[in-house]
Design brief:
This protein has 465 residues and is an alpha/beta fold. 31% of the residues lie in helices and 22% in strands.
Length: 465
Amino acid sequence: MKFGCTDIKITLEKLAVMCGGELFGENGNTEVFGVSTDSRSDCAGECFFAIKGENFDGHDFIGKAKENGAVCAVVSKVPDCGIPYILVNDTIKALGSLAKAYKSYFPVITVAVTGSVGKTTTKQYIYSILSEKYKTHKTDGNFNSEIGLPLTILSLEKGDRMLVLEMGMSGFGEISAMSKIAEPDIAVITCIGNSHIEQLGSRENICRAKLEIADGMKDGSIIILNGDEPMLDDVLEDRKLCRIYFGTENKKCDYLAKNLRASDDGTYFDLSSRVGGEMRELHITSAGRHNVRNALAAITVGTLLGLEEKEIKSGLRNFSPVKLRQDIIDCGRFTLIEDCYNASPESMSAALDVLADTAKGGKIAVLGDMRELGEYSSALHRAVGKKAAEIGVGRLVTIGSLAKEIAVGAEEDGMPRGNITEITDYGDAQAAANIIKPLICDGDTVLIKASRALSLERISKLIRE
């Protein structure tokens, strides 16, 4: 990956300083034009970072990176092939140090987003709104980790004014490390849910991990919090940060969405703000209260950064959803809600609300496993089944071994057993589609949702066909 700005001349000597390491075996004046973490890519003129993961060690592929044009390697042990190298204690931390030093060349305002659910959609809304006034750079795809975030920063270009970064995590310390690299001027926490509860043990610990987003923030910076989430009440009181709350329910919020109205083309709502007054007839093309909250967080960022109402409304209109996230597709005789990117108890509940709000005819829910819930898995899957029964799902299809508990919860809440179909093998997409297709009647709305590991978009595609 080439550096986003070619005006910054980075030599090996300079790169070593930026990485916090020591250069061996080469003239320090040799120029570097980018970085790579994948030895299979075109590494011409780039520095290869030998990163050690759970299932691989980048040091084993330094030779391949050299063959593909790498001029140097950043390593934590001396390589066994003849290539100039920068020796560091930790190559992931070195990548972060490089990104932090590179970012210092750009006069950008940095907005960081995290949360158990909605962080990607919120990031997209923030990008869409800020782009109405400023040249804005953002995290793409799933580059929201200790490796992906530095790569996003290293692709900053000349003229960028705003930087919008997404921060994900699976355990303590990860968001803290990213925050210290990015040093956010504004941070957003969308919600506290049950994602990664298997690793962290409780929602309280999940909240602690999300609050690490403040670790790299300077005094006087702004943190924007979901005011409908009780766990975020009065947090970070010991920090000199400006705390601003948004929400749809808590009347004490600084930015409050009200008068929510569902329509065929999305959702309309009004905004009452203690800071910027009122806005009326705000419109998003997505359904569901949770998407209003995501948009509201972005509106809050936009107003704080000087955007006018007409620019905010234009940014909402120009919003582009991420593929596989609650994409509503007209399939002719039925409607499909494809939401296959990932799943948690909170996002499952929100997706079922969208199904309830948008369905004109019968409601079919095809729901798969939710991963990383640990000892809470059974109870949380059953709660999803209960929700499906409560909103009037007429036909429930569960996919995967964990999702059997969704069926149990639905039946316990009164759904007839005959209306429930269980598919254990999600690997055979065609077989699953052959079971689901005959269940769909004219005018039905079909929701498909599960954790990313199940790749239910394969089944979705076959159903559409």
